[in-house]
């Protein structure tokens, strides 16, 4: 699937390192104003590219490419968007919106209720702009994290 300068495809095992690097770059480049330096530095905890290989193997992740380089991704399961990250230099180009649309489509497969996600504080306004509503504050619950990260539970 192609959308302007971007193309989208299912993630494959060779994408794990890029997905890992996008996550790290997005956290450090886009969340720094909402979280402490210690939280940013420890956010990834014990994660390695192998962690993302497991997620990719589930077959639910979609990556976005620009000039054959992965610049963003979304991962979803029935009823929930579990991850959506873009490189900081790709933010503001409509990529996040398109990945969110793909994530919502994936989350609705085999699920008829609301679609939920855990948004970082800095991303809350983005999700609200696209129809999600904030339910409550909490702490990040997915994966191998470091120090607790405050998030916003949201649903569409």
Give a verbal description of the structure.
The protein is α+β, with helices and mostly antiparallel strands and 156 residues long. The protein has a single domain (2-115), classed as Aminopeptidase, CATH 3.40.630.30. 32% of the residues lie in helices and 30% in strands. Strands 1-2-3-4-5-6-8-7 form an eight-stranded mixed β-sheet. Strand 1 and strand 2 (6-10) form a beta hairpin.
Under the CATH scheme, the architecture is 3-Layer(aba) Sandwich
User: How is the CATH topology named?
Assistant: Aminopeptidase
Average the pLDDT over all residues and give the rounded result.
91
Number of domains in the coordinates?
1
Q: What is the helix content?
A: 25-40%
State the helix count: 5
Total strands: the figure is: 8
What strand order characterises the main sheet? Answer: 1-2-3-4-5-6-8-7
CATH-level-4 superfamily name: Gcn5-related N-acetyltransferase (GNAT)
Shape: globular
CATH class: Alpha Beta
Described by strand count, sense and barrel closure, the largest sheet is:
8 strands, mixed
Q: Can you tell me the residue ranges where pLDDT is under 50 for at least 5 consecutive residues?
A: none
Structural class: alpha+beta
Report the span from N to C terminus. Answer: 24 Å
Percent of residues in β-strands: 25-35%
Order of helices and strands: EEHHHEEEHEHEE
If you compute it from the alpha carbons, what radius of gyration comes out, rounded to the nearest whole angstrom? Answer: 14 Å
